[in-house]
Specification:
Elements lengths: L6 H7 L4 H13 L2 H28 L1
Length: about 60
């Protein structure tokens, strides 16, 4: 079985400077997954509404 890694994990294993790795760790530790999920849903709903609006405008032409 292949051990798949996230981009985050691959960056931490890469040769980027330790200072950059620490910034990534700090940012990763500060993530709030509930907020991220809520924001993703808001953006997805806004996108869907925009698509619907564009479809309606095209039909009106």
């Amino acid at each position: 079985m292949i051990n798949q890694k996230t981009p985050y994990q691959r960056l931490l294993e890469s040769t980027i400077p330790e200072e950059n790795k620490q910034k990534l760790r700090d940012q990763y530790a500060s993530l709030n997954y509930s907020d991220l999920k809520r924001k993703r849903e808001e953006l997805l709903n806004a996108f869907i509404k925009l698509q619907e609006k564009i479809k309606l405008e095209k039909r009106a032409l």
